[in-house]
Amino acid sequence: MRASLLQIAVDPEESVDSRRRRVASLVRGQRGADLVVLPELWPVGAFSFDSFAEEAEAVGDDARGLAHGPTCEAMSAAARDARVWLHAGSIVERTADGRLFNTSLVLSPAGELVRTYRKIHRFGFDKGEATLMDAGEELVTVPLPPTPRGPGTTLGLATCYDLRFPELFRGLTDAGAEVLVVPAGWPARRRAHWSLLARARAVENQSYVLACATAGTHAGVEQSGHSVVVDPWGEVLAEAGTGEEVLTVELDLALVARTREQFPVLRDRRLGLTAPGAR
């Protein structure tokens, strides 16, 4: 499978509409890839909290393939034109009852919205995203069909701060995920954690990790960049710098099964253990 990660620079001087058009053009330029991945909250900026409510969008019924918001519609057209599976990063979703979610969108090569994922772990502790948005409650996987280049696979979806919670990724692995996709707006001051955690999630789940970050500055917060592709052995296959960049990597999807067979660590898990005195 050929995967392209688009590390988008978020410039506060660029309007959301302009960035939406620019990113759609970048997606169209990835024709020939099987999967394209965008970062977290790239339309508005992950730390642009004051703009969340203003830029929030509706999301269509993913079971019926509807795309209602402007970002989803633009990305739907771009995916269809490029004939790629598109993880369109995430947007600020507003539901019919007025709640906000950090919601990822996955579109098919026909431009259909096939799945959404609402970020489970919200960052900020007692401010920012943690207070402005509701938390998702569902683990989400997305089966991808075979391509002329190789077999199909299953994506497991997570977003940014989720990367710090290994139990989420183990749940995705148990649900059949072989490629873990993590869009992010990760701060530059914790860049070392970003790289370390991406590799850790790959090693412990014996899966590919596609971790796509933003570049630039969001509301004065410098972004990490350094989008990275990690294989099931924890080897870094490609890593971006700090500016806007496209990473394109060929993934040997059969490596996941080979790794799990040759080094079957997952079968040695011991579940249901209790701490002393907990009984």
From TrEMBL:
* MF-aspect GO terms: hydrolase activity
InterPro entries given in the database record: C-N_Hydrolase, C-N_Hydrolase_sf, UPF0012_CS
Q: Where is the CN hydrolase domain?
A: 1-253
Query: Which SUPFAM superfamilies did the record assign?
Result: Carbon-nitrogen hydrolase
Return the Gene3D superfamilies for the record.
Carbon-nitrogen hydrolase
Q: Which UniProt keywords apply?
A: Hydrolase
From which residue to which does any coiled coil extend? none
What Pfam families does the entry give? CN_hydrolase (PF00795)
> Which family is this sequence assigned to?
Belongs to the carbon-nitrogen hydrolase superfamily. NIT1/NIT2 family.
| Name listed for the protein in its UniProt record | Carbon-nitrogen family hydrolase
Q: Which organism is it from?
A: Streptomyces paludis
